[in-house]
Structures are given as structure tokens and as C-alpha cells.
Amino acid sequence: ITAWETAEKTAQRLLGKSSLVLPHPEQCSIRKDLHQQCPRCQVTYCSAECRQAALEQYHQVLCLGPSRDDPTHPLNKLQEAWRNMHYPPETSSIMLMARMVATVKQAKDKEWWIKAFSQFCSKTANEEEEVVHKLLGDKFKGQLELLRLLFTEALYDEHLSRWFTPEGFRSLFALVGTNGQGIGTSSLSQWVHACDALDLPMLQREELDAFIDQLYKDIEKESGEFLNCEGSGLYVLQSCSNHSCIPNAETSFPENNFLLHLTALEDIEAGEEICISYLDCCQRERSRHSRNKILRENYLFTCSCPKCLAQADDADVTSDEEEEGEGETDDAELEDEMTDV
């Protein structure tokens, strides 16, 4: 997903069809009249306030100025290397790590920020390697070292010298990979939600729903699985929320910006742990064995929530019925994922 595109422009690009016209364009939340660019590098922000906040926190370090299109600039080399190593490039973006460094470099109170970043959970050396392997694939050791060298060339700072060592960089990479929260603010997904809320006559409702269903199928055929994610962010409180297969809270981005909402799904008693799910709604309906296989591969733990404990005596194999069901419900699952921010 490209940030700040209108829903119609996103659909046109993903379909490769510039003539596509979306019904109810007024339901798109993107306000291009409020967007502002950095006068030096033309990076776009959603508002003047957002641009100023970025300038004060990290953008002075990361601003490329007239070198924005220079492939030999260290930051451009870093981003290009990352794009060649990992898909989708938005996930656990190397530039999130760059912003962390830039934030410390610009800060007057550098120790405060270093302490803030240290609040995120850390892993053992073996676990860190597993996270990096998951993100980069079988060639991860060589690729990680290349990223470290480019990262150092672009951003080295004496206050953060440990982050630029092989061990420190691996830890930083694993920290972002483990704690990074995908930021789902797709204008197309938001447009779909807004259209779902419209009070329409029955015939118009059926026509609109059919149009949206076909739109997603066409996008999947042309561009692959549609992602609502524009980037990755670190949220201290959200990262403290443990997983449950029966969560009592969920994260979302209802304001279509970087602000994460943690919303209760049921009444939560004082002192009760707030849990979110690291699985999507379709994954949570799979067998205990399948759920824990996903959690072990992606988050390096086995779930012991009440649902998993209640199913502890179930067979530790994925049932034939589930395998068949997965093939039959792919389209339905995809539609749920694409419209569920």
C-alpha cells in the first residue's frame, strides 16, 4: 500500500486499470488538500502538524534533500538493499530502525529515548537468530551483515555504538521484528468500511456489495493478496499485551492515521490481564495445533490461553477436514482480512 493515495487511486494501481471509477467516492477519507511536503526532499505528510512533529523528532537526520533520487546516497542504498531482501518491504521496515537512531541523534535527552526503546521485550541470542531468519530467509546471516554495514554508513552515532556492532544490530533487528505493529490505514479498506455503513435501498446494497467482492477478487488476481498495511510502528503499551486465542481486546486504526486504538471486546475486570490476538479471525478458528504452529513460527512461543488449555487433549496434527476447509474458504478468508483493519 502506498501512503496517502485515495481509495480509487489505490484500486487503479493494484488493478493496473487507470479507468476504474469507484462508486461513492465521497466515502474516501483521504484529504489531499491537507497534505504537506518537506520543502527539501518532498516527503509527504498528512498535515502541517505531522510534518512539524517529524521535523522535530527525526526528519532532520533522515531528510535526503536534493539527494532523494541519488542511488549512491547511503540511506537510499540501505532502502534498496532492504527491498531486495524482504517482501513486503513495509513489514518490520529497516527505516523504522533508522527512525529510532535518528530520534536519538536529534534528541536533547538521548538517554531518555534509549531507555524508552529498552522497554520493548528482548530475546535470547538464539531467539534473535530465529526472528532474523524468519524475516530474511536462509541467507539471513550474510544479508544481516550487509544491512548492518549500510546502516552504519548511513547513520552511525557514538551514543548508540552498540547498536552498530554485529550483536547489537541483530538485537535491534529482532526487537523491531518482534514488537513492530503493522499500521493498517489503507484508504481502500476504509472506503469499504464506510460503504458498508451506508443506508442504501436493497438493490443498491446488493450491487455495491457485488462490486466490492469482484474488486477484491480482481486485485488478488492482478497483484496478489491485498495488504492493508502501510508500514510498521512501535507502541510501548500495545507491545506489553500478551496473546490469547480468545482475546478480550483488539488493536485498530479507526482514525486512518498512526494512532493505535486498543479496544475492549468485552467487559474487563480490574486486575484482569488485557490480551489481544496475534492471529487473524480466520486463524483463530483453526485447530490448537495449527494455531500454535503459526505462533511458534512467527512469535517463538506456544500458547497456553484458556482455549488452548481446553483443547490440550486434541490430536497434535492438523485435521484433514481443516486442510480441505482452508482450500474451500480462501476467498472468504481473504475478503475478511482485506476489510478488517
UniProtKB/TrEMBL annotation:
GO terms for cellular component: cytoplasm. Its main location: cytoplasm. Its EC number is 2.1.1.359, 2.1.1.372. Keywords: Cytoplasm, Metal-binding, Methyltransferase, S-adenosyl-L-methionine, Transferase, Zinc, Zinc-finger. It is found in: Cytoplasm. Residues 315-341 are annotated as: Disordered. Pfam families: SET (PF00856). GO terms for molecular function: histone H3K36 trimethyltransferase activity; histone H4K20 trimethyltransferase activity; zinc ion binding. It comes from the Eukaryota. It catalyses: L-lysyl(20)-[histone H4] + 3 S-adenosyl-L-methionine = N(6),N(6),N(6)-trimethyl-L-lysyl(20)-[histone H4] + 3 S-adenosyl-L-homocysteine + 3 H(+); L-lysyl(36)-[histone H3] + 3 S-adenosyl-L-methionine = N(6),N(6),N(6)-trimethyl-L-lysyl(36)-[histone H3] + 3 S-adenosyl-L-homocysteine + 3 H(+); L-lysyl-[protein] + 3 S-adenosyl-L-methionine = N(6),N(6),N(6)-trimethyl-L-lysyl-[protein] + 3 S-adenosyl-L-homocysteine + 3 H(+). Residues 145-279 form the SET domain. InterPro entries: SET_dom, SET_dom_sf, SMYD5_SET. Coiled coil: none annotated. This is Protein-lysine N-trimethyltransferase SMYD5. It comes from Fulmarus glacialis.
